[in-house]
């Protein structure tokens, strides 16, 4: 079945460091979305990517849509304590279903 | 922006009882509502899709008689966990596509943590 594998699963970094995480798919996606989920909350959209090769920034966050359309990465620069949370990649399956399929998640801990 | 209000945010119930979770779209009409379940330290998994005025469609392995979904109006969708058991303890989240013309994306409720004791 469809899988969206994220790596790393978890990471512990010092405040101020840059962070990089990625998401790989077993099949092609036409849209990539990156979400952040705080404990006990629903996911919040960070960045949306619509075209292969697209590079998009949102403040300290930058994400890219891989050329093969089977991967995407998210970078966070100069991390701060409030960056703590779980980051998910997601996208609508190319089967035409309207729902989002979520990656396995990357749990980020920022040490002050 | 498009907001989905989800209630309750947490609930504790006894085994065998039923629990209703509500998701309301504020200031827009949600013709489709997706219901996800998230177990601790896991990702969000789609349970079912509800469309206003029609029967919900359930993902493989999700019991439709146990997880009753009602989407009787364009602003309210409900998920009722019937005869709850401890293994139903999870974080339930609803989601709906942004209104047309509001850009591409999905808005999520704030989630309901269900604990069955």
- Could you give the order of the helices and strands of chain B? EEEEEEEEEEE
Q: Shape of chain A, please? A: globular
Helix fraction of chain A by DSSP (H/I, runs of at least 4): under 10%
Radius of gyration of chain A: 13 Å
So how many helices of chain B?
0
Mean pLDDT score of chain A, rounded?
A: 93
What are the secondary-structure elements of chain A, in order, as H or E? EEEEEEEEEEE
How would you describe the shape of chain B?
globular
Question: N- to C-terminal separation of chain B?
Answer: 37 Å
- Structural class per helix/strand content of chain A? mainly beta
Largest interface: A-B, 20 and 26 residues
Low-confidence stretches of chain B: none
Largest sheet features of chain B: 7 strands, mixed
What oligomerization state is this entry in?
heterodimer
* CA gyration radius of chain B, whole angstroms: 14 Å
The average pLDDT of chain B is 92
Number of strands of chain A: 11
Q: Provide the low-confidence segments of chain A as ranges.
A: none
Task: Pick out its properties.
heterodimer; A: 112 residues; mainly beta; 6-stranded mixed beta sheet; 5-stranded antiparallel beta sheet; 54% strand; globular; B: 117 residues
Blueprint (SSEs and pairs):
The complex is a heterodimer of chains A (112) and B (117).
Chain A: E1 4-7, E2 10-14, E3 19-25, E4 32-37, E5 44-49, E6 55-58, E7 61-65, E8 71-76, E9 85-92, E10 100-102, E11 106-111
Parallel strand pairs in A: 2-11
Antiparallel strand pairs in A: 1-3, 3-8, 4-5, 4-9, 6-7, 7-8, 9-10, 9-11
Chain B: E1 3-7, E2 10-13, E3 19-26, E4 32-38, E5 45-51, E6 57-58, E7 67-73, E8 76-81, E9 90-97, E10 106-108, E11 112-116
